[in-house]
Amino acid sequence: MSPSHFSMVELIGIKRDGGILSDEALQWIITSYVDKSIPDYQMSALLMAIFLNGMADEELAALTQAMLHSGDVLDCSTIPGKKVDKHSTGGVGDKVSIPLAPMVAACGVVIPMMSGRGLGHTGGTRDKLESIHGMKTAFTPDRFMELLAANNVVLGGQSATLVPADRLIYALRDASGTVPSVPLISSSIMSKKLAEDLDGLVLDVKVGSGAFMKTVDDARLLAETMVGIGASHGTTVVAYLTNMEQPLGHEVGNASEIRESIEVLRGDGPADLVEITYLLGREMLVLGGIAQTHDEAQALLVDAVASGKAFETFRTIVSSQGGDVAMIDDPGLLPVADHTHVLRAPTDGWVRRCDALEIGIASVRLGGGRETKEAAIDPSVGITVHAKIGDSVRAGDALATFTYAENEKLEAALGAVETAWQIGTTPVKNQPILLDEIR
Ligand code: URA
């Protein structure tokens, strides 16, 4: 079939029946969806067929290429040094990019970071950053390159012209139940990352209840798929599989996650969040050619935090991207909703379950995420998780504090966490953070 003879109904039928779409057909679909000649309902049907039947390697390569070239592609060749980025497949309380990018940039790696918004029950780096008053994350390619040349780091997102196919498909997947699919996640992430003209990429592939991949085997398949796409484009990709059974750190929200990120930049912060931030940071410094070994990289990261260079870099990013630096210097100025509700332990014992998915859904219901494509985020609400897996609690101890703006939303959020915490009568081991690595 020549491109002018493609029929979307026929192409949906091919995928629905387990067939293979040609490179030309996939290219036509992406171009036509971006120029709005394919409507959302047909694209949703195709996404569901891909979700159910998967994609062959050659289809995935063609889809990723078509998405990558659906808009502008950055050319970072004029900026000296290796360009490295990090991307997470999405989790609850996963604010790692926010302290990580300034820490690694302070050590000399160039980071053209393009992050996403919240998807389903998971939070998004862009939404979190925008809780800093005035902070912008959408730039034209020219402005993005100006900021990168000035600061060696940008915390941005896709603009209308960078990988527009992913921006449109990502929002449609969120609203059509087609997010947790290996080909759809890998083409989404890798099209954005390849458009950044990177030398190296570190992936944090989340596994468990709060992740899109629920088992280590599924996560490994996703990681291997993305490492393979990187290799075929000459970009070194290293993937870490990390635990997402429970939220990362203590804060789940938007402004509250900025506050917790600042703790890490100040040399403090919860142990699990600090562990993943340094794990990924070490790899980025090695991929960026700044350190030869992970030990050397660790020493550089520790120094960047202890000397204040990492925090200073974050201030520079915030002020260059229009954000109010006073909110960073004094995180108490970040938005906080007026009301709090404390959820308490019903009995003595050890926490055996602190479910990331249910807590993520509760955060969305509070207003911290979007229930529809168009919904606005309330940056001031969130959940502070006090008791995590392995902790011992007494009856009446606080399990979590809900910071909320509206009673009905609190009720809806509490409904989501009815079984989120389970307390057993015997001690429970702490969960390992790092589950595997693929290179
Ligand atoms: N992050 C992305 O950028 N895309 C996905 O599909 C999932 C997580």
Mean pLDDT: 95
> What is the radius of gyration computed over CA atoms, rounded to a whole number of angstroms?
21 Å
Q: State the CATH class of the largest domain.
A: Alpha Beta
State the shape.
Answer: globular
CATH topology of the largest domain: Pyrimidine Nucleoside Phosphorylase, Chain A, domain 2
CATH superfamily of the largest domain: Nucleoside phosphorylase/phosphoribosyltransferase catalytic domain
| Main pleated-sheet profile | 4 strands, mixed
Structure description:
By secondary structure, the chain is of the alpha/beta class. The chain has 3 domains: 3-54, Transferase, Pyrimidine Nucleoside Phosphorylase, Chain C (Transferase, Pyrimidine Nucleoside Phosphorylase, Chain A, domain 3, Up-down Bundle); 84-331, Nucleoside phosphorylase/phosphoribosyltransferase catalytic domain (Pyrimidine Nucleoside Phosphorylase, Chain A, domain 2); 336-424, Alpha-Beta Complex (Aldehyde Oxidoreductase, domain 3), CATH 3.90.1170. It has 17 helices and 13 strands. Strands 1-4-5-13 form a 4-stranded mixed β-sheet, with helices on both faces. Strand 4, helix 10 and strand 5 (236-243) form a beta-alpha-beta unit. Helix 5 packs parallel to helix 11 (255-265). The longest helix is centred in the middle third of the chain and has 17 residues, at 216-232. The protein is globular. The mean pLDDT is 95. The structure holds uracil. The site of uracil has 9 residues, from helix 9.
